[in-house]
Write a structure and sequence with these properties.
The protein is of the alpha+beta class and 261 residues long. It is built from 8 helices and 5 strands; from the N terminus they run E-E-H-E-H-E-E-H-H-H-H-H-H. The protein has 2 domains: 120 residues, 3-Layer(aba) Sandwich (Glutaredoxin); 105 residues, Glutathione S-transferase Yfyf (Class Pi), Chain A, domain 2 (Up-down Bundle). The protein binds glutathione (GSH). The site of glutathione has 14 residues, from helix 3 and helix 4.
Length: 261
């Protein structure tokens, strides 16, 4: 049985309902007659999903894509801040939810799940009616899976090596580790630039999806690198589109982010 009460060092930051236009083409906030998306009739799923999600997060980290997805999908959720500086992610209570001792963790129907890419896929499937993640058989599904896994298996580990070189080798090798990580990260931007130039403006062409949020969160992580992702022109165009979305602005407000606005 999971603890229902938060561990004391994990503060509940905000509980809110955020109402979005579920049509992905219009990301502005809905008018007064709008209802929470979680309460709307689910057009495609077999049963309506009205769960309250709980996201354990830290500002600007891998939890950001999950936070963005919750807002875009318009589903009810609460946030619990994990203070990485205070090492709250290594607290035994938190390790029971996420044995890796990292953020994010998402509580879904009372059970904890981790790995941000998996959480994005899970949310997209649970709220398939929003059309923000292509389901099996739909156009773009294969590309959606390919890029999601590519980011999770290639880009994210390279970023981990960039930010945490000590996890990968002795301290005197840190510069070499980071240099290797930099090359791996830039190689992904090269590939993404070519893909977007040929198939954009979004990763799935004309259709915005949760994958664009994932890509843009990762782009943001490169902002202080020697060659940030938005030096590639078509990537920069996608970044601008995503930064213009209400969900991106809202996450900045809630998480208190400033850089790369
Ligand atoms: N593969 C995991 C990686 C998560 C991860 O590395 N999170 C970082 C923040 S971006 C973290 O919690 N770092 C704290 C630590 O490693 O102690 C995922 O995608 O969710």
């Amino acid at each position: 049985m999971l603890p229902l009460l938060p561990e004391p060092r994990i503060a509940i930051v905000r509980l809110y309902f955020y109402f979005f236009d579920i049509d992905a083409r219009h990301s502005h906030r809905q008018s007064a007659q709008a209802r929470p998306a979680a309460m709307l009739p689910n057009r495609c799923s077999h049963f309506p999903i009205q769960t309250m999600y709980t996201l354990y997060y830290s500002p600007g980290t891998a939890s950001m894509v999950v936070h963005l997805a919750l807002l875009e999908l318009g589903v009810a959720h609460e946030l619990r801040l994990i203070d990485l500086d205070a090492k709250a992610q290594k607290d035994p209570e938190y390790l029971r939810l996420n044995p890796s001792g990292v953020v994010p963790t998402l509580i879904v129907d009372g059970a904890p799940y981790y790995e941000c890419a998996a959480l994005m896929l899970m949310l997209g499937e649970r709220h398939a009616d929003t059309g923000l993640a292509p389901m099996p058989g739909a156009a773009g599904r294969n590309r959606f899976l390919q890029w999601t896994l590519h980011f999770a298996n290639t880009l994210q580990p390279a970023f981990r090596q960039w930010f945490y070189p000590a996890d990968f080798g002795p301290p005197d090798q840190a510069d070499a580790m980071r240099e290797f990580a930099r090359r791996r990260i830039e190689a992904v931007w090269e590939r993404l630039e070519a893909h977007l130039a040929a198939n954009g403006p979004y990763l799935l062409g004309d259709a915005f999806s949760l994958l664009d949020l994932y890509a843009t969160m990762l782009m943001r992580w490169s902002r202080n690198m020697p060659k940030p992702a938005d030096r590639w022109p078509t990537i920069a165009t996608l970044a601008q589109r995503i930064k213009a979305r209400a969900s991106w602005k809202r996450v900045y407000e809630i998480e208190g982010l400033g850089e790369w606005a």
